[in-house]
Amino acid sequence: MTDPAGAPGAAHQKIDTSVPHSARIWNYWLGGKDNYPVDEEAGDAYTAVFPGIVTIARSSRAFLRRTITYLAAEVGIRQFLDIGTGLPTADNTHQVAQRIAPDARIVYVDNDPMVLAHARALLYSTPQGATSYVDADVLDPDRILEAAAGTLDLSRPTALILSNILGHIADHDQARSVVTRLMAALPSGSYLCVNDGSRGVDPVFEEAQDAYNESGAVPYNLRTVDQITAYFDGLDLVEPGVVTVPLWRPDADSPAPEPIGEHGGLARKP
Question: pTM for this structure?
Fold first, then answer.
């Protein structure tokens, strides 16, 4: 586990500003400022082909807020393991959870040096709760679980959050294996929350993403809805199941939701 407060300079030294990075582009689409000109150029090139990507990014963030609200307010979950954190922005996991339950404990995991450099914002917690940051790769679940156990009691129900991270694993079977390993370490009553870019809804989105993947940036692989649903095998899906994210328990005062190329769901471990 890396102490982000101890070596922000080292983290900055590893940041490659010559190549666009998905976390920084995503931050740009969300209206954030933690990005570089190369990221803005890549983001603008993407939106020129598919302007709807901004809606997907913001809908993904809204889905995260609604699922965490459900987990903290309706189910009583007090522990969250958020892997593939991304850059801090509005309504981060700890902010949503601790507004409802000040004693909530959150562990963030990412291996992006820029996220590491900004981890202080993620580590701000209520006095009753706790937050920590683990510098680790999603492909190393054993290291993640070992480090997370320093903050979370993994014998108690925990929510595992994988938001727009599994698409970075090229092989779908490998991505499923990572999810299985992580969920196997959590007890009955834990939850899995996954959302990822999807194929089969918007061909323009798919063309834009395929072009992005060929640009030299770190690829992000869109999955079919069946592939996303497979992450929840053996778990009990919460209604309405795996759906395009605007349709997952939308806010009562939100505009009529429309399907987009981003699917997600929430499920309980029996």
Answer: 0.88
